[in-house]
Structures are given as structure tokens and as C-alpha cells.
Amino acid sequence: MNTDAIFGWMIEHGVAIVGILIVAVLLYWLLGFITRALTRQIQSLDDEENSELDKRTETIFRVVRSTGIVLIVGMAVLMVLTEMGVPVTPVLASVGFVGLAFGLGAQTLVQDMISGLFILIENQYTVGDAIKISGVSGTVEQMTLRATMIRDMYGTLHIIPNGEIRIVANMTREWSRAVVDVSITYDDDVDNAIQTLSDIGQQMAADPTISPLLRDAPAVTGVEGLDDWAVRLRILVMTEPGQQWAVQRHLRRQIRLVFAEKGIELAFPRQDVMVLQPKKRLGD
Predict the structure, then answer these.
(1) CA dihedral 104, 110, 114, 119 (to 10 degrees)
(2) Residue 143: enclosing H or E segment and its boundaries?
């Protein structure tokens, strides 16, 4: 092995490869620095913490950063291969041929990326939103142009390609609504139960610990159903985005305590069993 040839190659190409790697690392760091700085700058335009602007900015710049990293790594690999003497043009040509041969697979990838782009442009959802797509409910944990990652209440992470998303149910956009149904027995006074529900709603609206979660005063709609074993009442209230579950838990607790205090019985499914005795025959 010619030592001079190796030394000459290192001088001619090794330094260039090291330079490419250094530039790639610097671009990676610069990309992260710029995206984080722009994110903080844009999020500081409003005083509200975790606002819609904050979540949208975070989502867009996460996608920009992940896409930029892919481009930086891809370009660095191609440039290093060129310096090492690997013919890149035939490799790219073969990749293009394979891509043409597997066009259907490429179409799926392109469809996912286009769908992800439209999700961002239309602001259908952002990181931190509680949504339901493709039968999966949870919180958006991460999003790229190709896929959306959703964490459900059990901690399972679902990765859904954007091209498969047809209908999105966003439960935390602009405002939410807490709905609680209350079933009472047919023996109870309906008007008394409705008035008690209204009182619970007024107390909740005046409670300084729970009232910041509300957009409007709770409203009792009245009798929503006459079921087989109960009279069903309903109370609903407009809440801040994503706060409907906390408000519903508070309402259920207060309903259980106040109804018990006022002697209003909450109904539950039951079955009546009737035992019939056989009739006695004459002569027995």
C-alpha cells in the first residue's frame, strides 16, 4: 500500500469530507437555533400561554425542522460519496428507475406528504390538540408531513399516515362543551330535580376554582328522555378548549353530593322479579 498515495488522498479528499461533516453539523445546529428562536418570537406576540398561535407555531416549526434535517443529511451523504469516488449519478439514476418501477408506493408517500401539507395550511389540528381520527382518540404528540402521532389515554402511541386521514374530530378547537345527563326515578319530583340542577350550575359559575374554565353559565335543558327505568335530565355548559372533561367530573361530583343531600334518588337499571304461586285445585 502506497503511503504517499493514502496521504495525498487524505489531503485532497479527507479534508473535504471533514469539512462537509462540519458544515452539516453547523447547519443542523443553525436550523435548530433558527426554528427555536422564531418559535419563541412568534409565540411572544400574544400574552396568552398555550394559545392557538403558540400551538400552531410549534407544530409548523417542528415539521420544518424535521424536513430540514432530512435534506441536510441527504445532501451531506451525497457529497461525501462523491468525495469518496462513488459515482453518484448512476446511483441517482438507478434510484429513479426503482422509483418508477415502484410508482404506486411512491404515490402513497406523495399522498401522505400532500395531505400533511394541507393539514398544516388549513390548521385542522396542532400539537397538543385532543382529536379523533381513523377511530383513534388522543392527544397529538408529534406531526410530520408524512404522519401524525397520537397518544391515547392509556399511553399507547398511534402513528397514522396523513394520507389515510379523511375525517378529523377536533375536541379542543376554540371552545368545548360539557354535557352531563342525570337520571332520576319516576317517583321523584321532576321540577325539584331541575331546580336543583340549576342551583348546582349557578354555584359552579360562582366558584373561583372552576369558573375560569367556563365560557358561559351552565344551562339545564330539561327532560331529555323517558327511559324504561328513569327520567333523564341534562345540564350543559360551554367551556374553554379541552376543559370539558374537568368540568364534567366536577358536575358529576356535585350532582352526587347535592342530590343525596336533598333526598333526590339517582336512578339505576333494575329488574323486578315477580314470583307466582300455582293456583290450588279444587279437592287439594
Answers:
(1) 90
(2) strand 136-143
Q: By percentage, how much of the chain surpasses pLDDT 90?
A: 35
CATH fit for domain 3-101, picks 1.10.287, 1.25.40, 2.40.50, 2.60.40: 1.10.287
User: In residues, how long is the chain?
Assistant: 284
pLDDT 10s digits, 230-258: 999 999 999 999 899 999 999 999 999 99
Rounded mean pLDDT of the chain? 82
Q: 237 has which bridge partners?
A: 178
Sequence-distant contacts of 47-52: CB under 8 A, at least 24 apart: 50/128, 52/126, 52/174
pLDDT tens for each residue of 6-60: 666 666 667 778 888 888 889 888 888 888 888 777 777 777 676 666 777 777 7
The architecture that CATH gives domain 176-261 is: 2-Layer Sandwich (3.30)
Domain boundaries, the chain: 3-101, 176-261
